[in-house]
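Hi V.,

You were right to ask for the full record rather than a summary. Here it is.
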Amino acid sequence: MKNKHFLSRVALLLALGFSAAAPAWAQLDKYKDYREVYRDTVDAAPQSRIFVQQDTVINPNQVVMNSFGRNWFVYGTAGAHTYIGDFSRDGAFSGTVSPDFGVGIGKWFVPGLALKLEFIHSSTRGYTEFMNAAEGYGYGPALGTTPAGNPYRRMKTRWWDLNGLVSLNLTRLFHGYEGYGNTRHMGQWMVNAGIGAVHHLGFEDDYGSDNEWSGHLELQYSRFLNRNKRASIDLKVRDIIYQTNTDYHYGYQDVAARKFGQNLGLDIGFTFYLGKQRNNGWKQGTATVYRQDYREREIQVVKVKEQEVERKKPARHGTLTFYVFYPNNYSGRNDAPIIADAPVNALDYLAGGIFTQKQYESNEAVLARIAGGASLNGLKAIDLPTEAANQDFAIDFIPRGYEMLQDTPISLSLAPGDMQYFQEKTGFFYAPIYDGLNVWQYRIDDATLRQQLLSGQNYKETNSYGLNAHSGLDTIRQYMDVDGSDELVSFADVYAALKSNEGYIARFADAATVDRIREILDRGIVLLIQVEGLATSQDNYSGNDARRVGIERNTALSQNRANTVINWLKQDASLENVSSQIYLVGSMNGGIRTVTDKSTRGLNAKLNRSVKVRIQYMMD
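Predicted structure:
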């Protein structure tokens, strides 16, 4: 914690150093078209680099090999094959088809490589000539004559094959390991190749060897039955090549004969992984990534008279801090402008949005379902345009915005009477978000739609503390880590300063604070904007490698929340020309905060689903 504000102090010292070296300066344009005279910069020498963020990144192409006792599986297959040999084309195709059955055991050594041992029992059906060396396997009357004019009849022999295969998982080799308990790669492609030993049943010495080598090549598609990938249904295209003595000439006819034949078939099977589920995944390799800051800001210096330099007042420095609080599983990353001229903007939703910001497309369909007492799940819903909150809303009889009003949450009632009352006043029915099993009553990201929560109450917002409003600053000061020298303002104050302090947002902003923020942005120079996305440790996933899955989910939320706020800040004219190098994203303490409460609606959970922004500035 001693270095908690290291970056802030570095930027401040640099600014003060510049002020002392060049006390007389004037600004023609705050953030572009500079002529270099002095530099306000971090030294780019290696020993002076500032590590802004240290992240642990999962590498999908690198895993830690498990012990020998893990990742074993058993499987069984059944199917049919056609025999391709010397006389297989002389008769009907149906006469070459035989069933086959197999069982096997195998082990994955890494996600992309396995070894298998398999036993197959089957038969071969085809055709053979009279007077053939293998005529003893023929049966029945003559069916016709070969192109050489020799009569042929049916042939059948039984055999078993014991083989060893190398299995390559193409899906994981090309796309990386998806992680245990992950819904990615539910269908996977594999190639299996190996050699085996064939034992022919019923051969006699006059007809050839009982035992031969075989070659195996398979293309396999496996569809897993659950996200833990404990079992799969397998479809295989299989080719077995082996020496045949069942239709092979020994010189009785003056024709060329192929010594090898093949069984080309299609099999369906089932694979089951042994051992405890949590032991069947692999620990993934990680890499530590450091993001470095090489900021260089060039400020134009204008020559002034010596007496003017003496009267020059020293520059004023400060840090403006505010928080933006988010609903659970929401960062705004999916809020694309899908409605013409009316984007569903995440920050506008937090300031003055309604419910899920969705409505049902057909009022008639909703009324019919309500009349019949049926669920509304499946009815088409569309996004509502998100209105900027610096205006008076026509729909003003319900709570609007997230964490704006105290004790008035954003979720609305789904009782038929309440929904019909809303429709009578507005002309449309508001819509929740269905994920197939649950009903979300506030806006969420598409990427987090199917993440299950621990309690049914967590799918709606039942508590509100006014954390995004100016009135919530006392709560933030009490529970959040705010430096005593920082000037703390609210999201509502910043929103009003960037838009205008009018309409709905004016109810939650402080006018004097709004003017102060606007003055800093208009007259000051921004030295540094530090943006820290936060997410809670709450995650109900309990499968294998649950800790890593939870970290991945919540880290993504924290980073997406930070990026959403940055993109929103850049929309303001006073910040649009600020170099991207001025924005420092991340946290020296990590983006996930531990919350033991199972409710996502409690104060501790809400405080840590947020983005902290610190704007360091210098005023003349």
